[in-house]
Amino acid sequence: MKQRRPTKSTAERLCVTLPLPPSINEQYYTDTQGHRRLSPVALRYKAEVQRALLHLERQGVLNESFLKRMGTCYLALYMECYFSTPLQRDLDGGLKILQDAICKGLGANDNRVVEIHLSKRICPQDPHVYLEIDTLDDWEFDDEYRLLPKTPEGQSQS
Question: How far apart, in whole angstroms, are the C-alpha atoms of residue 87 and residue 114?
Fold first, then answer.
């Protein structure tokens, strides 16, 4: 069996292996009032990611500067999803739950994610996700539109 990549953290990047998220079909159910809710499987997955991140923090693996940057920088995610078979499920079905769980566990708002790269890989005996998170000091959204800093009154500059 192929060995998983080691977990490592610097001031700008976290590289970590996590469990494969549940498929989108397993993540939600409709309650008796007709509202969509996270399923017990999805809630367990999010809790599992939180425990894994807390464990890394307690071990001193998570770089303190990285954790501070998670709340202030733009984020780029690189994910390799290792499935049991090539056609088992859609590549992007677990993206949102993984993004939500990792951002919450690291103290970031997922609206700071500006770039995502997903790849499908095969690892029949050990399905998992390899994730790299880069913290970006700056991001150019578009040549024509620039993000302006807010004034003290909370309004964007014109």
Answer: 28
Average pLDDT, consecutive stretches of 10 residues, N- to C-terminus, the chain (158 residues) = 75 94 93 95 97 93 91 96 92 95 95 96 94 93 74 64
Mention every residue, 6+ apart, whose C-beta is less than 8 A from residue 42.
Answer: 22, 26, 27, 28, 97
Give the number of other Cβ atoms within 10 Å of residue 34's Cβ.
Answer: 6
Instruction: Count how many domains the chain has.
Output: 1
- Nearest Cα neighbor of 46 from 18, 66, 13, 71 is 18
Q: What is the residue type of 157?
A: Q
The answer to whether position 21 is within a domain reads yes
Residues 6 or more apart in contact with residue 91 via CB below 8 angstroms: 81, 118, 119, 120
pTM: 0.83
Nearest 10 degrees: CA dihedral of 9, 98, 137, 112? -150
Domain that holds residue 57: 8-136
